[in-house]
Amino acid sequence: MKTSRTPGRRFDPGRRRFVQGLVAGGVLLGMPGLLHARPEPGATGTGTAPVLTGSVIDLVIAESRVNFTGLVRRATTINGSIPAPTLRLREGDEVTIRVTNKLSEPSSIHWHGILLPYQMDGVPGISFPGIAPGETYVYRFRLRQSGTYWYHSHSGFQEMTGMYGAIIVEPREGERIRADRDHVVLLSDWTDEDPASVFAKLKVQSDLYNFNQPTAGDFFRDAGKMGLAAAVKKRQMWNRMRMNPTDLADLSAATLTFLMNGSPPAGNWTGLFRRGERVRLRFINGSSNTFYDVRIPGLKMTVVQADGQDVEPVTVDEFRFGSGETYDVLVEPKEDAYTLFAQSMDRSGYARGTLATRQGLAAPVPAMDPVPWLSMADMMGTMGLGGSHAMMGHGAMDHSAMGHGAMDHGQHARHGATLARPSQQVRHARTEYGPSTDMRVDMPRTNLDDPGVGLRDNGRRVLTQADLRSLDGILDDRRSPSRELELHLTGNMERYSWSIDGLEFGRSTPVAMAQGERLRVILQNDTMMTHPMHLHGMWSDLESDQGELLVRRHTIPVQPAQRISFLTTPHDLGRWAWHCHLLFHMDAGMFREVVVS
Ligand SMILES: [Cu+2]
To answer: How far is the CA of 230 from the centre of ligand 1 (A)?
Structure first.
């Protein structure tokens, strides 16, 4: 993101090759060559997680050793495995989960997407003080929903060092979705580095891990295609905006190893089926930093749940999901082996596994798609759709000098009878005009049918948010909103600062909601990155820009320059977290507290 970056910087092909990991996965063995020995004590179990069930469950958080890449590292794990045990629970049951912290630092567990009393939500500093070293915290709550969810640490960077697992809540009346077989596919990411030092390095240079920067070669290719003058102009434009069109992810395979059920690509996690079976795959994005584009070459996937909630079935070739989101799909495999392929959005690497009729089979692993460049629409919203000269010199990136619309509405609120549709009028908070914000979008796009950068027109049928429709009866609150809040997702890429309305969490005040009210929340993304926004404690009912209710979610991805809205009804009193689920964005400040009273 520095203007001083030399466009001609070459990348070393060696650095682009990402770590495929160890065949043995993360199981740390005592000595090389003892592949069939039992893992030594203190080693982390990986692969398909053990299943825990019942009304009383004990979880122990501790350090254990893991080796994904050839280097032995310390992980923080729950019951000694990555992923943590899968919790199989039943709708309507009360569950008691005793969590003991054997780390030397405080810890916590948050039950992602589960409705519960706020004291049970597991966010230190908001729901409770956290779990001190040596202490046991007893979580107790009744399950008011069913579907696929997950749980993870909400302390420090522990989520990134191994603390995540699946939750499956069976419907009280039995499964509505018929399947012969059921696999959790939990995607995550791992770094051999200390996440705190990765974070500190990003603060110094935000594009440190982006080795896909445009090169002199790209420039000459552009010049050949569009002429020298246009290529120069394009390059100048990116420089002027201090942006890098390949800034799709802060982190990349340069430091991350992509895991599927705790197995690196070479470990090839394998889910079994018998021919003729209908298989349900519960995809969970439990990564700290990665948007995954998931497909199974040769198989159509029928999406039947989003974030644990039933949707009208929609058949696709591919879907993208961000940290925190889940999708359940049905597949009917006919061959002996298929590759489960999940490339990272920045195309720096992939997680991979296999669906097969027996262990040891594999299908070809496809090549990764080319590295996409952000388009003008990503950068500029609707203005960018009209061609790049619309914004050149218009200064749409920075209106601070123009005194344009700089009103201090705080969490801007609209009231009254005009709320059938979400407001289209962009309102930047006064706090967006400061050093925490390096861009503001004045003409956002509201197109939910955009699969996103790198997936447009790729020849495959890619799921979009516009495809998702909750099944009848799920969107149970059909009231019009009585109030509208508008908040903007903001950042300053060069400072690696992330915020809401230009205010990092530490500088912000809580968002107030009234119990039982029907509220519209507009989120506008004034940054170039997609943010999966997770509101704790209540559902986010995504709507179209015409105010048509679409789908119930707990985590909504908001694309660059996009303006989306959702309705929510806070039923549970208390203090709740609301944040971007990219761990480093949350930590940098894209986080608000919500108080329901
Ligand atoms: Cu974010």
So the answer is: 32
